[in-house]
Amino acid sequence: MANTMPAMRPAVPHFSSGPCAKRPGWSLQALTDAVLGRSHRSKIGKAKLKRAIDLTRDVLEVPADYRIGIVPASDTGAVEMALWSLLGARPVTMMAWESFGEGWVTDVAKQLKLKDVTVLKAGYGQLPDLSKVDFSTDVVFTWNGTTSGVRVPNADWIPADRQGLTICDATSACFAQTLDFAKLDVVTFSWQKALGGEGAHGMLIRRVRLLDLLKRWAPPIVIDRHRRIIDEMIDPPIEQPIRPRRFFQSSNDVGHAFLTFDVCNGPVPVRTSVTSSAATSCP
Ligand SMILES: Cc1ncc(COP(=O)(O)O)c(C=O)c1O
Fold it and tell me: What is the pLDDT of residues 199-242, one digit of tens each?
């Protein structure tokens, strides 16, 4: 096949795996009501956090039986929080077709040292055979491999009645592709990708039924607070009456990098500067 130069060029030619370009029309004006020098536990800080979570639910159409949390350490923090807290109860299938997927394989095999791990890998530009995935195991995969540009076509290859969990690094897919949440038990992303926000914060969206698993499953390793998922710290389903809304526990500055949370229906600039090691709750 002859390679021809694409006729259509990107409007912003600074391609990288992130941070991505700001949304059209973004300017520094978006930061005029940034919350500077305030704790993320302050009333205004909590309101910003709550708004970011609520907008995430609205825009991504996250089902009511999923909880949304904001976590430190960007998408990496969100994925690793899920791996460290949830894996180990069952055998695991790790799928990788670019560098970040391979990073999760290293996490699970070399850092967590889980024994019963099947790795399904494909080279750059390829997908592994999706029909080979055993869904009686917990399955970890990247929806859209940023560095290779290869993504899964849809979630049809994931059975609805699977026994294992599906943990999906969707950092380059959220807000860019439609995600079939019913097939995904954990979905992660960071603001620096499709939202064009700053790095540092991750989003962890997870099915409520994982709570059952968490109550029964105690990972056989010491988990630092940074990586623990604690059920009382998750926001409630949206249709429930408003009650104290809680977030993931963070061992670093939850507030510090809440710089911008821009979505197309309006900028929500947030900035706080206080570091903390405790849970955050919203009124
Ligand atoms: C597929 C994928 N997963 C994870 C990451 C890590 O994201 P972050 O830097 O937000 O932790 C990236 C970053 O480029 C990525 O492309």
Answer: 788 999 999 877 677 777 788 788 877 777 754 444 443 333 32
Q: Is residue 21 part of a domain?
A: no
Best of 15, 16, 17 to mutate for ligand 1, by most ligand atoms within 8 A of CB? 17
- Flag whether 22 is in a domain: no
Residue 246 sits in a domain of what CATH number? Answer: 3.40.640.10
Q: In the block, which residue shows the tokens 């540009």? A: 149
Length of the chain: 283
What pTM, to 2 d.p., does this model score?
A: 0.80
80 lines ligand 1 (CB under 6 A): no
Distance 171 CA to ligand 1 centre (A): 6
